[in-house]
Recover the amino acids of this structure.
């Protein structure tokens, strides 16, 4: 009888050991943080890869600069950025490596009710620097233009102002623009938003609004909501096809960033996103695959 009790106790201990090992393995966490543009791609990939390999992958937003910082300072296993790593960031965080998983462009968006179909680069500059303040000056209705801007730390803002030769300052919660070389900033402030979804909501709810977001996000919002529209820049349509053929002027890479060469499951996750299945996620979210 005593031997049976000892045998049962031994079986229970062995079972508990294996259960604890399984539990510990299941608790392995990979942290991904950064770009709101990359976030939906990483989230879907994390769900598939994590389930397949019994790993918990936590994906957070916060902007591209946070993604670079997170990878550089060890706050995240993988940082995400919808832009290249800046030279000053490479200097501050030696060893950062960008793994490009997709390409995207930045679309200028207006409310669906706005009849304006396209703008020149010069007109966009004049709008954001306060020289053009009413849509009637552009062939639209007699309606004040409401500016929507991305916040500091967002690669969408960085690429937008870089492409158009502008610079910005933030005061009292609003963003003010000027053309590089000009003395003062515009007296017209732009409402500041973070994620692409926030910019889309702001523009869709105001017939006079104009903003700029990821082309992929804009295309999805047009199909699902129908309350915004992409407008042409210098006669070129903001489309995935024009990003792919490199005719659209504002293009950016979508990157996963690691400090040093990735290994283990971190390497595996990046390789998964570059695999046919991972690139299919990119394609289904309306971004441009790299393979």
């Amino acid at each position: 009888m005593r031997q049976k009790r000892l045998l049962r106790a031994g079986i229970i201990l062995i079972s508990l050991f294996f259960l604890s090992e399984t539990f510990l393995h299941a608790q392995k966490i990979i942290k991904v943080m950064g770009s709101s543009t990359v976030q939906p791609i990483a989230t879907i990939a994390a769900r598939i890869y994590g389930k397949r390999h019994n790993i918990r992958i936590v994906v957070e937003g916060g902007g591209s600069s946070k993604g670079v910082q997170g990878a550089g300072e060890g706050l995240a296993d993988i940082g995400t950025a919808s832009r290249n790593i800046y030279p000053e960031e490479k200097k501050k965080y030696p060893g950062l490596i960008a793994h490009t998983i997709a390409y995207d462009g930045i679309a200028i968006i207006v409310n669906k009710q706005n009849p304006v179909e396209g703008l020149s680069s010069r007109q966009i500059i004049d709008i954001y620097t306060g020289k053009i303040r009413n849509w009637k000056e552009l062939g639209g209705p007699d309606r004040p233009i409401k500016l929507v801007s991305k916040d500091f730390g967002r690669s969408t803002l960085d690429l937008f102002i870089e492409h158009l030769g502008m610079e910005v300052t933030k005061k009292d919660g609003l963003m003010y623009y000027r053309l590089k070389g000009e003395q003062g900033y515009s007296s017209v402030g732009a409402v500041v938003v973070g994620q692409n979804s926030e910019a889309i909501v702001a523009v869709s709810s105001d017939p006079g609004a104009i903003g700029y977001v990821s082309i992929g996000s804009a295309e999805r919002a047009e199909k699902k909501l129908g309350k915004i529209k992409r407008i042409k820049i210098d006669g070129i349509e903001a489309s995935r096809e024009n990003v792919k053929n490199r005719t659209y002027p504002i293009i950016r890479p979508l990157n996963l960033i690691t400090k040093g060469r990735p290994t283990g499951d971190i390497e595996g996750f990046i390789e998964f996103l570059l695999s046919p299945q991972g690139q299919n996620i990119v394609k289904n979210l309306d971004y441009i695959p790299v393979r």
Observations:
- Confidence is low (pLDDT under 50) at residues 9-26.
- The first strand starts at residue 29 and ends at 34.
- Residues 18 and 122 are 66 Å apart (CA to CA).
